[in-house]
Amino acid sequence: MDSSVDDQKVIGVDDATPKTEFEAEQDKAAADFNASTKNAKLSMEVKVHSPFRDYYDGQAFSISAVNATGPFDILPKHHNFISLLSACDLIVRTVKSGDQKIRIAGGIMHVKADKVIVFLDV
Questions:
Q1: Up-side HSE of residue 111: CA atoms within 13 Å toward CB?
Q2: Is 43 a residue whose pLDDT tops 60?
Q3: By 3-state DSSP, what share of the chain in percent is helix, strand and coil, each rounded to 5?
Q4: Which end of the chain is less packed: N or C, by CB atoms within 10 Å?
Q5: Nearest CA to 118 among 61, 43, 80, 65?
Q6: How far is the C-alpha of 111 from the C-alpha of 118, rounded, in Å?
């Protein structure tokens, strides 16, 4: 039996198996994500404000805070999320001006579609 390396297949892999709709959607989402981020560093829109003052409104690479379960970070492409914030130093890693530290007594954070809104003094 004489076969070349090109004629051999990996056992258990069948190229003829059609992809499920879910697998096709995953592949498309991965391709779209890679195309949109090829040469760019990901960022998200962040707004931190209270009823009387705007603390930050702009693009950021990440935001760090503390809730009842402990410290956490929000990065671009994060799933939808809402949380009560504990007293902490809220750290916004901004695109233009570096890290901004905002001391908070508590608040609410809402994350949806690369937009983070933090409501303080509520």
A1: 20
A2: yes
A3: 15, 45, 40
A4: N
A5: 65
A6: 9
pLDDT of residue 57: 97
Residue range of the domain that includes 92: 44-120
Show the tokens assigned to 111: 């994350």
Cβ neighbours, 10 Å, residue 85: 20
Task: Tell me if 78 is assigned to some domain.
Answer: yes
94 found inside a domain: yes
Q: Measured between alpha carbons, how far is residue 6 from residues 10, 17, 49, 63 in Å?
A: 11, 20, 61, 50
Q: Is residue 108 part of a domain?
A: yes
Question: How many independent structural domains does the chain possess?
Answer: 1
Beta strands 81-85 and 70-74 are unpaired
CATH code at 101? 2.60.15.10
Note the residue count of the chain.
122
The per-residue pLDDT for range 44-99, each reduced to its tens digit, is 999 999 999 999 999 999 999 999 999 999 999 999 999 999 999 999 999 898 89
